[in-house]
Amino acid sequence: MKKIILTLIAGLLLGIPAMAQWCVGGSINYGASYKEHTHSINIKPDVSYTFGNVCVGANLTIEIYRENDTNNTSQYYGISPYVQYYLFEVGPLSFYIEGGVEILRRLQDAEGPFLHWTPYINPGLCITMTEHWSVMGYLGRLEYDAYNQYLSFGLESSNFGVGVYYTF
C-alpha cells in the first residue's frame, strides 16, 4: 500500500499536474436491505484529482444505519480513499472502475466504538453535463467485509450511488 501511495505522489510531482484537474462534489445515498432488514443513509462529500485516465480522491462518510428487527440505530463516520480508472468514453458518457477502502468508525453507543474497514471495487458511469459539471454514479459493489470476514457482490439499493461534481 505504501508503494502505491508513493508512486501516485511521485507521478503528481513529476509533471502530471500540467494536465490534471481538481474536482469537488459528493453524494447522498439511501440503502435498504430487505434480506437483512436494515436501512442506511450515507452523506459523502468528496474531493479528487484527475490526471489522464486516472482519478485519485477521498470522500468523508457519515452514515446512519438502522436494524429494523431490533430498532437499533448506529452512526458511523470515516474516510474512503479511492482510485478511479476511466476505461472508455462515448460522447458525454465515461465508464470507469473504482477501487478503494472504506474506513468507518462507529460513534459511541451501547456496544462501544469499533473500526470497520472494507476494501471494494465499483463499476461506474460519469455523465458530463457541461465543461465543469458532471453526474457520477455506480451500480454494484464487490467488497470484502473485514469485520464480518466475508466477500460479497451486491446489486441492491445500498450498492447504488449518484453524486454531482464540479471540476476546476
Can I get a quick summary?
The chain has 168 residues and is mainly beta. It contains one helix and ten strands, in the order αββββββββββ. It has an eight-stranded antiparallel β-barrel with strand order 1-2-3-4-5-6-7-10.
Coarse structural class: mainly beta
Helix count, DSSP H or I runs of 4 or more residues: 1
> Which runs of at least 5 residues are low in confidence (pLDDT < 50)?
12-18
How does the overall form come out from the CA principal axes?
Answer: elongated
- What's the CATH class label? Mainly Beta
How would you sum up the major sheet?
8 strands, antiparallel, barrel
CATH architecture: Beta Barrel
Series of secondary-structure elements, N-terminal to C-terminal: HEEEEEEEEEE
Please describe the topology of this protein:
Blueprint (H helix, E strand, L loop, with lengths): L1 H12 L6 E14 L4 E14 L2 E14 L4 E19 L2 E14 L8 E14 L4 E7 L1 E5 L4 E5 L5 E8 L1
Antiparallel strand pairs: 1-2, 1-10, 2-3, 3-4, 4-5, 5-6, 6-7, 6-8, 7-10, 8-9
Polypeptide structure, described:
- With 168 residues, the protein is mostly beta strands.
- It has a single domain (17-167), classed as Porin (Beta Barrel), CATH 2.40.160.20.
- The protein is 7% helix and 68% strand.
- The longest helix is centred in the N-terminal third of the chain and has 12 residues, at 2-13.
- The radius of gyration is 17 Å and the shape is elongated.
- Mean pLDDT is 82; it is low at 12-18.
Keyword list:
single chain; 168 residues; mainly beta; Porin; 1 helix; 10 strands; elongated
